[in-house]
Amino acid sequence: MILMTPSVNVDSPFDVLGIDSDADDAEIERAYRRRVKESHPDHGGSAREFQAVYEAYRQILDGYEGSESGEEDGSGRTVAKRENGAAEDESDESRVEYLNYEVLDDHGWELEDDDLFEKASESGLDPVDYGKILVEPGQSLLEAAEARGFAWPYACRGGACANCAVAVVEGEMEMSSNHILPAEMIEDGIRLSCLNAPITDEMKVVYNVKHLPNLDELKLPADRFERAHLND
Questions:
Q1: Higher per-residue pLDDT: 206 or 3
Q2: CATH number at residue 18
């Protein structure tokens, strides 16, 4: 008896983003931002779905369907390959070293430790919890993390809650918009990653600090703004 193996229907990157294969760059970017929000674990998605969206986006940027670096793909776009999510011209980018606040208790670390990041770099942490990312001009810190496939916490993306807050340990981060953080927290280096970006070439941040004292009460349920839009 011959056993037939059923065929597996694998969605193309364009299917994952919900766009046609001839979509232009602006359509691709809008679709990616929409799918990132839909698939984010804080908004009813899953880490697996979020990663699939990120991988689809990277494949399209890298010239899906076998196009070579710098050549046109089937949609007529000129694509340039990127390595490890970084653009070829890094002159205006900021390099951000990040650490997940949730791992501090596991290792007996404190946010105020002078050698916090040195200890993190020697501990073999998962890339989700510790590593470095490049923030491109025009990107918020949250967008840069999502562009690397990381599902950092957020809720409103508008500066009205502390879900996306980070603690700046070294370097500087702009504070062009703030509707929620009290002055004392700003003085302590707390910033909102959804709106703001690094303004120094190098920066160290601890993300996922939403459970810190005085921040916990400024959080919002992740779906509150989704419900508000549906009721508009």
A1: 206
A2: 1.10.287.110
- Compute the distance between CA of residue 132 and CA of residue 74 in angstroms, rounded to an integer: 33
Task: Evaluate whether 59 touches 13 at the Cβ level (below 8 Å).
Answer: yes
Instruction: Kindly report the CATH number assigned to the domain that includes residue 190.
Output: 3.10.20.30
Does 37 share its domain with 123? no
- Judge if 88 and 121 occupy the same domain: yes
Q: Which of 77-98 are b and which e, b meaning 16 or more Cβ less than 10 Å from the residue's Cβ?
A: bebeeeeebeeeeeeebbbbbb
Calpha distance 156→175 (Å, rounded)? 17
User: Domain check: are 163 and 217 in the same one?
Assistant: yes
Q: Which domain holds residue 162?
A: 84-232
- Count the domains in the chain: 2
Which candidate, 143, 133, 141, 135, places its Cα nearest to that of 37? 143
CB atoms < 10 A from the CB of 16, how many? 22
CB of 207 closer than 8 Å to CB of 166 = yes
Whether the pTM exceeds 0.70: the reply is: no
Supply the pLDDT for residue 42: 64
Share of the chain above pLDDT 90, in %: 35
Tell me the pLDDT tens digit for each residue of 165-188: 999 999 999 876 666 888 888 889
Place of tokens 């340990």: 169
Residue 1 lies in a domain: no
pLDDT of residue 69 exceeding 60: no
Contact (CB, 8 A) for 74 and 67: yes
Judgement on whether residues 136 and 217 belong to the same structural domain of the protein: yes
Q: Using alpha carbons, list the distances in angstroms from residue 110 to 99, 118, 119, 140, 184.
A: 12, 13, 11, 26, 19
